[in-house]
Amino acid sequence: MSLHVLEKLAETNPDCEIWWDSSPLVYEGWKASVLKDAPADKREEWEAQLTRLFNAEDAASGKMGFRGVTTNPPLSLQAIQADPEFWAGEIRKIAAERNADDIEDIYWAVYLDVVRKGAAMIRPVFDASNGKYGYVSGQVDPRFVTNRERMLAQGLQLAEIAPNVMVKIPGSKEGYEVIEELTARGISTNNTTSFTVPQYVACMNAVSRGLERAKAAGIDLSKWRSVITHMSSRLGNIGDLKAQADARGIALTAEEILLGEMAVLKRAYRYGKENNHPSKMLQCSMRVQDDGPGGKASSGHIALIAGGDFVYTCPPGYIAQLMKAEDRLPAFDAGAIDTDAPPELIEKLLRIPYFRQAYEFDGMKPEEFAYFGAFAATATEFAAATRKTVDFVAQSVEQLRRRVA
């Protein structure tokens, strides 16, 4: 049996977890497309690997590779776009039952339905593990990342869907207030749009406060979990790192940026371990560096932290890239998590305000989180995807009105 790259990664630490970063609803269609384009000599091997990673019919066996699922508005939009006829029909049904003039209300009902269907698909993993694995993350509306009341209300709605729904909350000051409140009610959370050590510490503190309240109130925490997302390549590539470096005459290579991203993650990871914190760091937004056939390939976003106790949530495109490059990827070093970036590189990066904000424990105040470059850019991207989904809902309702007329 030939192991998938991610299965090899999982072998470096028995407590690490591989998750699927998209709606479970798209998995079979994506799998079929990958196998259709697979090299003839790899097709059978790849089919076995992809079946081990996610097989809805055998999810209760405890042997399935994916131990959880993350979604966000762009990924939920992909699920809808993968079967637009079905979802247009679902939207029209919902509109007929609700106020068809309230497009936002219909959109939210549709989003909850996408999360509900995904949670049902992986629920057997949750049941078989007694709540340790098998969560699906559902995200509050990214257009309201600083609206505490709205995020809390939506978080409670998401949590009501199923016991294996984990609520995704952004890393804003208000988001951490919501995480504390949800934790106090025994609701599992995933801190998203988070990039920096100050955010991660704020999240851990919010979780700790919430747990104290939950325990004092006698809340059952036996099936509670907390993960904290590090959006790795987004930290170094969509924020202000490069622009600020250029403005100061500091040249940065792609490798130096990668090492800086991982240095931030390792600092937060070690802080959590040193304080025996129950939240688990989640690595996402990974990339593959591939020189093409005959050339070198690598994915430092996983290789540099191999051996750590992480959740790795992997989108379809990233998994496919790993498979195409598998024969050229170096073997994982289980001690990589304990290897630090060169001190001179950290010193160089600390000359850049953006990196200081991300790396130093006091790099930002909570009021500044929502204005950090990577946060602002990601929230804008997610909000745009949400607006596209809302417009898809509007178009479906318009079709319903024309039919009625």
Strand content: 5-15%
The first-to-last residue Cα distance is: 60 Å
What sort of overall outline do the alpha carbons produce when their principal axes are compared?
globular
Provide the CATH architecture. Answer: Alpha-Beta Barrel
Domain tally: 1
Q: Could you tell me the number of beta strands?
A: 10
Our Rg estimate from Cα atoms comes to 21 Å
SSE arrangement, N to C: HEHHEHHHEHEHEHEHHHEEEHEHHHH
CATH superfamily: Aldolase class I
Q: What profile does the largest beta sheet have?
A: 8 strands, parallel, barrel
Number of helices: 17
What level of helicity do the residues show? 40-55%
CATH topology call: TIM Barrel
**For this structure, what is the CATH class?**
Alpha Beta
Report a brief summary of the structure.
The chain contains 17 helices and ten strands.
How would you describe what is shown here?
By secondary structure, the chain is an alpha/beta fold. The protein has a single domain, classed as Aldolase class I (TIM Barrel, Alpha-Beta Barrel). The protein is built from 17 helices and 10 strands. It has helices at residues 5-10, 27-36, 43-53, 73-82, 84-97, 103-128, 148-161, 173-184, 197-216, 232-237, 241-247, 254-274, 300-303, 316-325, 343-349, 353-359, 373-404; strands at 17-21, 66-70, 135-139, 165-170, 189-192, 226-231, 280-284, 289-290, 297-298, 311-314. Strand 3, helix 7 (148-161) and strand 4 form a beta-alpha-beta unit. Helix 5 packs across helix 17 (373-404), helix 6 (103-128) packs across helix 17 and helix 7 packs across helix 8. The chain starts with a helix and ends with a helix. The model has no long low-confidence stretch (mean pLDDT 93).
